[in-house]
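Hey, quick one: can you model this chain's 3D structure?
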Amino acid sequence: MGAVAAEETLKLIGDKRQIVVVAQDSREFEMPALEAQIKAFQATARKKAEVTVDLEKITMDAMTMMATGGRIPAEQFFNILHKYPKAGAIVLFLGFPLLANRDPDALQQKAPKIVVVAGYRPDYQPLLERRLIDLAIVPRFDALPETARKPRTLREWFEQEYVILAPDTAAALPR
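Sure thing. Here's the predicted structure for all 175 residues.
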């Protein structure tokens, strides 16, 4: 997932040279799958283009995780947006934050593309339609056709497990 997320992010950012990856700090709770995804993202991004990949680790205790449902807290998200005003993309390996009524308007003024690599949430559909999220990479929520062949490439393995959601396909998403 990390490699494909990097490839898709590179397509989005055009000539921008900075990507910021945001993930939960795994020092307190080991998350080997997350660490592998981030390493694959970084390696792919650096191999495909001359970009910098900055990593922002978010520390969330168990209470914060429960309160946010695994989403990045909105305040921390906006702090990262302000910290990296020249970023081409912010890639969240966390759920997109719950926004207060005033936050969507502030977010519409953003410069970087927002990519979410996390579980699907029904509120992503309107966020994609409003282009507050530019891309979401989520686990498949539909079954593969019985005629699907055995995957051979990295991309085919990815497509068996994940889907890429974009603003132009948001209307067809489940609510």
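One thing worth noting: The chain has a mean pLDDT of 87.
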